[in-house]
Amino acid sequence: MQEHSDLMRSLGKTIAFVPTMGFLHEGHLSLIRKGRELGDNLVVSIFVNPAQFSPGEDFESYPRNLDRDFDLAEKSGVDVIFTPDEKELYPRNFQTYVELEKLPNHLCGISRPTFFKGVATVVAKLFNTVKPHVAVFGEKDYQQLIIIRRMVRDLNFEINIVGVPTLREPDGLAMSSRNTYLTSEQRIDALCIYKALKKAQELLKNGINDAANIINAASELIKSHMGTTIDYITICDPETLVDMETIDSPALMALAVKIGKTRLIDNMMLNPE
Length: 273
Ligand code: AMP
Hints:
The chain is an alpha/beta fold. The chain folds into two domains: about 1-165, 3-Layer(aba) Sandwich (Rossmann fold), CATH 3.40.50; about 175-270, Pantoate-beta-alanine ligase, C-terminal domain (Pantoate--beta-alanine Ligase, Chain: A,domain 2, 2-Layer Sandwich), CATH 3.30.1300. It has nine helices and eight strands. A five-stranded parallel sheet has the order 3-2-1-4-5, sandwiched between helices. α7 links the parallel β4 and β5 (about 160-165). α6 packs across α7 (about 140-155) and α8 runs antiparallel to α9 (about 210-225). It is globular and about 55 Å long. It binds adenosine monophosphate. Adenosine monophosphate binds next to α2 and β4.
């Protein structure tokens, strides 16, 4: 991979990079289309990163289908599909990790305390391997996106980070590889996540700007669906992720909800008029 990237760079080609865990869906493909626009050479990685899963999470059962992914990637104009081996990325005696001080202490980092250490580390390694000029990430994983932006600034990676809006199913559910875990009943319940976000936007539009009130209404809506468990619902500053009490400037509403055993995340901006 490094040799290929060195060659591309020596030919004056720009490299665009889309890191994924595979099981590609339309959301990934929108990142790939963006990457296609941004670089001469488009690299997509597929790697289910063990370092970002904790014991008891779904590393083993995470959906995988490399043949299908290769097919989709090829049809979308991807030049290189990089599928590193676990032992190659984490050889014996591996001991260097990338950790951020503040951003991981919010949202998903609370229930998944080692998650962003795993994410930042693997992304740094992939950046050093793929050597891209530009890398594309989804706003669906908003906290991940701003953590990567922070890491790139803090560690002087010369990489432009581009965010792409969340792609949704026609009814509003954010696309996710994990949606395949849902039974047909759970798939219906899962829509409450999107409805809660839309409800928040509606309340704000109607003049309610007290974050606690909005969170309360959103959590009531979610709890009315049996089999859902709220991990968190937060309204926070989009840059620091610190909770906001009053929505008097653009705020991020983010939530994680378990539908049965499947943990799904989503977010939306709340913009006061
Ligand atoms: P994953 O394979 O889930 O690690 O996701 C790889 C990349 O695709 C990440 O940058 C995600 O934020 C992005 N992504 C996943 N789902 C969506 C979606 N529904 N819309 C836009 N981007 C997405």
